[in-house]
Design goal:
Number of strands: 20
Strand content: 15-25%
Radius of gyration: 25 Å
Helix content: 25-40%
Strand order of the largest sheet: 2-1-3-4-11-10-9-6-7
CATH class of the largest domain: Alpha Beta
Structural class: alpha/beta
Shape: globular
Distance between the termini: 31 Å
CATH architecture of the largest domain: 3-Layer(aba) Sandwich
Number of domains: 3
Amino acid sequence: MTSTSHDRLLIIDFGSQVTQLIARRLRELNVYCEIHPYQNVTDAFLRDFAPKAVIFSGGPDSVMREGSPRPPQSVYALGVPILGICYGQQVMMHDLGGKVEAGEHATAEFGRAYVTPSEGTRPDFLNGWFMDGSGREQVWMSHGDHVSEIAPGFEVLGTSPGAPFAITADLTRRFYAVQFHPEVHHTPNGKTLYENFVRDAGFAGDWTMGAYREEAIRKIREQVGDKRVICGLSGGVDSSVAAVLIHEAIGDQLTCVFVDHGLLRQNEADEVVSMFRDHYNIPLIHADESELFLGELDGQSDPETKRKIIGRLFIDVFQKHANDIEGAEFLAQGTLYPDVIESVSFSGGPSVTIKSHHNVGGLPEKMGLKLVEPLRELFKDEVRALGHELGLPASFIGRHPFPGPGLAIRCPGEITREKLDILRKADAVYIDQIRKHGLYDEIWQAFVAILPVRTVGVMGDGRTYDYACALRAVTSVDGMTADYYPFSHDFLGETATRIINEVKGINRVTYDVTSKPPGTIEWE
C-alpha cells in the first residue's frame, strides 16, 4: 500500500526469509516502509517512490555469481541513507569498489556471534551499542561469503571472529552495512540500530495504525468505486477486521459470506453469525457447505491435497454466491503478510515457498472477481491494533488465530466426522483449562490435534483402544517464529485428566514442545 502523506523507506528484498522482520522493526518505530523485490526496483521506480532511506535485505545468493541480485546503480546517487544487511552488505561493497570472497570454514558464520567495536570513530549509528560493560554485542550471523576488502570511503566500526568487517560505514554518504541480521530477536539490541538509522534519515515516526486505517479506506474506495464486494468471513480476527474495515469504507456495498465448512470449532458458527448480524448489522450470507467440504475431503490424508481441496471449494462457494449478488466484482479476504511470505515471497520476490495457504495466490480467471486484501501487508499484532482502532471488542481482538482450513489441518491423516467431533470437544476442554488458569492472553495460539493412531488404555476394569491427541501452545509476536509455552506439569496432568474423562474417544494426551522453526505452528 503506497502512502501519500508520509515519508517512505524502501526495503529492497534480495530473498531473505526474514526480510519481513525488517518491516516489523520499522513499524514498531512508526516508520512507513514498503518491501519490493530487487527485480522490480528500476530507475523509474526509484524516481516515483522517492524514498527517504533505503535498506538492502539479506538473501541466499552470492554476489560473485553472474546474474546475482543487484539494485540499480542509481540508488547510490539518491543522496539518502542506505543500510545493507548480510547479502545487502556484500552487494554494497561489491558495487562500490570493495571485494567479496567465497566463504571458508574460518570465515563462515551461522548462528550466535559477538561483535566488538573497532577503535576510533563511534558514530550516532552505534548509539546505545557496546554499553553493557562487556564490550561486545550479541548478533545473529548467517553467511558463507564475506567481505574481504571494504569499498573506498568506508571504515570498520565492528568485527566478529568470522567477519572482520561486521559493521562498516561511509559516514559522509551515510551508507551503513552490517554482516549480521539486526532484525531477528537473536540480535537483542538490533532494534537500536534501526532506530539510529531512521533517526539519521530524518523520519518523524508518525505512521500509526490510525494512519493505516485512513489510507486503507482511501485505497479500498479507489479500488472498488461503486461496485459490490463479497468478503470471505471465517469468524477469525483477520477476516473480521477486514470485513469491518471494508464496511467502514463502502457500507452496504459489502456482503459477507460466512462458509461453514464443517471444520469449525465448537459453537463457532452460531457466534460468528450472531456477532455480525446483530452487532455490526453487516449483510451476511450463512452458507452451510459442510457436506460439500467433508465429502470431498473423504479419504484424503496428504496435507497439501487437503489445503488445495479446501481452497478450491472456497472459491467455488464464493463464485456461487457472487453470482447471486448483482454488481459483485470483488472478493475480500483477510490475507496477512506471514501467509504471503510462507506461500510465495511478497510481491513476487525470490524467497522460498514453505507451504500453501488457501487464501493466497489470487483467483482463477473464470471467477471473474478481483481481490481486495487490505491486511495483506500487516502482521497479526498489527491487525489486532487495527481492530482496536476500528472499535472491535477487546475480547474478540485477543482471540487466538484460527487457520482458514480449520480443523482439517489439526487432524493429520484422513478426516472423519467422528474424529472432528472428538477434536472439537477436546479443544473446548483445553481452551477452558487455559482460561481458567488465566493463561489465555499469555499464549499466541493453543489447540488440540487428534493423531492418526489409536492406543491401548485402561479405563475402569476395561481395555480401551482410542485416539491419542497432542496439545499445542506457543508464544509468538508475529507468527513467523514461535516457542512452545512452558506449562507446568500440574497443568498438563490436570488437563489430560479432564480430556480423557470428558471426551469419549481419547485415551492418551501428549504435549508438543517443538518450536518454529523447525516445526510450523499448525501440524499440517
